[in-house]
């Protein structure tokens, strides 16, 4: 799923499985858009260079509730998800398991964005090269 130059993005109980992208966001890519809100989304075995499961770039706030990332892989950074140049990032009861990155942020990477708030988030067996 790709969303570019749009308003807010809201998904409920969406499922992404075995999705791939050559560059960004194997399951979901959001660029230059409004706030991103996912409730109960799941990403499994998704692959990309950046943000194996999900990549949000140059957008508003990012809020995930009950999201799960399982066995997602990034060639560079953000095995499960990556957020770049966006607003506040908040995760409530999100889980990351067995996600990997060839660079950094096996489970998740956030750069050049607002505050990051994790409540009840879990990371299990995620790994980055550095």
UniProtKB/TrEMBL annotation:
Right handed beta helix domain boundaries: 14-128
Gene3D superfamilies with a match to the protein in the record? 2.160.20.20
Q: What is this protein called?
A: Right handed beta helix domain-containing protein
Pfam families under this entry?
Beta_helix
Q: Which InterPro entries match?
A: Autotransporter_pectin_lyase_C (IPR012332), Beta_helix (IPR039448), Pectin_lyase_fold/virulence (IPR011050)
Top-rank lineage group of the source organism? Eukaryota
């Amino acid at each position: 799923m790709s969303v570019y130059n749009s308003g807010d993005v809201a998904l409920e109980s969406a499922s992404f499985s075995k999705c791939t992208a050559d560059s960004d966001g194997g399951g979901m890519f959001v660029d230059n858009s409004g706030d991103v809100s996912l409730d109960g989304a799941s990403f499994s075995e998704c692959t990309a260079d950046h943000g194996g499961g999900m990549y949000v770039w140059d957008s508003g706030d990012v809020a995930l509730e009950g999201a799960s990332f399982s066995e997602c892989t990034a060639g560079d950074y953000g095995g499960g998800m990556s957020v770049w140049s966006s607003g506040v990032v908040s995760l409530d009861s999100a889980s990351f398991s067995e996600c990997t990155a060839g660079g950094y942020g096996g489970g998740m990477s956030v750069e050049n964005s607002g505050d990051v708030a994790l409540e009840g988030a879990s990371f299990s067996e995620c790994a980055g090269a550095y």
